[in-house]
Amino acid sequence: MKNVYDYGIYAVRYDGNDKNNLIQSTKVCFIKDNNVSMPVEFSRDFLIADIEDGNKYYTMYKNNNKWERREIVSIEYIKGNPYVKIRLDGIEGDDLGELPNY
Known about the structure:
The chain is mostly beta strands. A hairpin with an 8-residue loop joins strand 1 and strand 2. The protein has one domain. Strands 1, 2, 3, 4, 5, 6 and 7 form a 7-stranded mixed beta sheet that branches. Helices cover 9% and strands 50% of the residues. It comes from Clostridium acetobutylicum (strain ATCC 824 / DSM 792 / JCM 1419 / IAM 19013 / LMG 5710 / NBRC 13948 / NRRL B-527 / VKM B-1787 / 2291 / W). This is DUF3892 domain-containing protein.
């Protein structure tokens, strides 16, 4: 059986030249027993494949020097194209809310 993990996304880089505001990459930490790993950078394609593979991603924000999970990150297909979102709203484009850009 495949291991399924939880990850937290705490920063995002969008492609400013794309009309659908597509993600270029994200900064991610592995979450285990409320502890977080050292950050790594994931591409949009890797993120989509990993979510579709069953891994869970959340947005994460630092509050009082502790990381907090917030919204679950999902993939929404619109006109056959995958979009990375925290709100499944039927709008073409990626949306990870108010995460800071890097």
